[in-house]
Amino acid sequence: MTAKKFLIRAIIVMIPLTPISAKASLPHQNNVAKAKTAVFKKHVNNFSASKKVPLLTFEPPGEPTGYYNAASGLTCAALKSALFSIISTGTTQLTYTPGLWNAYPQTDKKRNDANTADVVWDMYSDNPSGADPYTFTFVTNQCGNYSKEGDCFNREHTFPQSWFGNGVYPMYSDINFVVPTDGYVNGVRGDNPYGETSAPTKTTLNGSKIGPCTYPGFTKTIFEPIDTYKGDIARIILYVVTRYQSQLPAWKSNANADDILDGTTFPSLDPWVINLFIKWHNQYPVSQKEIDRNNAVYDIQGNRNPFIDHPEYVAAIWQCATPATEISLQNNFIKLYPNPVSNTTINVQMNESIATGVQAQVIDLNGKLITTTTIAAGIKTFSLPAESLSNGRYFVKFVTKKGTTTKSFIVQ
């Protein structure tokens, strides 16, 4: 694994596996978990989740310096191949059992609505806008048998395992895309691809849907997650087709994998899927939940989802396979630098000038508007004031007559 610098916060102590987490708000997502502890990889595959083990607590490492250097300046297929090499190197293969079960308290926890306990962060049951219909406790509520929602949680291969051959490692236990979800809803989804439907045949308690796809380009059955997690899902599947790109041509003939795979290493996905995932990626930007999970996964498994660390990679890769009208003026054509910010300004560079002008709003993690700057039409490069900002993560919301897009930056 690439060397990482950790900020040690405590000496070795004997504590339960389940760590402390926090719940906060984002402009587009109410739940935020801060992964403040993680277990060394040598423990993840071997210990019982109910057993006390020695841990070190530390601040999550974040993206290691130089991790993506080999991808610098690349676009299209070359960038995708460079990322394939980066995220395939230095990984630790988890066991399916108990490795994934033991890792989930580090990667997928949140506080319950009453803020009294850590529970499983399940994208198929979480209700960001109200009370959760039910919650799961780690270890206690692992499946098991189920007959309805809320019975238990299991391990969902967001990229169905029937598409890569069932039980084949390292895909089988790749925690970047194998996530904890309600067992019943997991079964309802089956191996149907993700999509959008305006005529659902079933709607789950948190609003996820299954039904015929009504997004252009596909008409078969799909599973539609709630809006809050559409960006998460898009970035997860884009990770899969990058991490395992060399195997995609062989996978196309597995089960119904050809519903989304085009049989190539690039662009890898059918046009309707590319367009849909670009849409979701842009509409639902990277959340703090994803950032924290990415850091925790890196500490355990040794690789990262590059589309969480660098959302601009999505456009840099798939704009080569998609008409520019699909993704022009979106957030991935906007670059913020330097990022992190350590001086008084942050610079903004657009690939295309906006004919109608832009309003740039700086917003903090609580959704509070800090500054608003109006940029005249036709300008592609400009600066925003940052001298009054305390250390932390912020968002720039770009507002035009054609819609809004959001980018994030860090002040340190």
Features:
412 residues, globular, disordered N terminus, 2 domains, alpha+beta, Immunoglobulin-like
Structure in words:
The chain has 412 residues and is α+β, with helices and mostly antiparallel strands. It has eleven helices and 18 strands. The strands form seven sheets. A four-stranded antiparallel β-sheet has the order 15-14-17-18, with no helix packed on it. Mean pLDDT is 84; it is low at 1-44, 46-60 and 324-329.
Task: Describe, in short, the structure shown.
This protein has 412 residues and is α+β, with helices and mostly antiparallel strands. The chain is built from eleven helices and 18 strands.
Show the helix and strand layout.
Blueprint: E1 7-8, E2 13-15, H1 41-44, E3 53-55, E4 58-59, H2 76-87, H3 96-107, E5 109-111, E6 118-120, E7 153-157, E8 178-182, H4 183-189, E9 202-203, E10 209-212, E11 221-224, H5 230-243, H6 248-251, H7 271-283, H8 288-301, H9 306-309, H10 312-318, H11 324-327, E12 334-337, E13 345-350, E14 358-364, E15 369-375, E16 381-385, E17 392-400, E18 403-411
Antiparallel strand pairs: 1-4, 2-3, 5-6, 7-8, 9-10, 10-11, 12-13, 13-16, 14-15, 14-17, 17-18
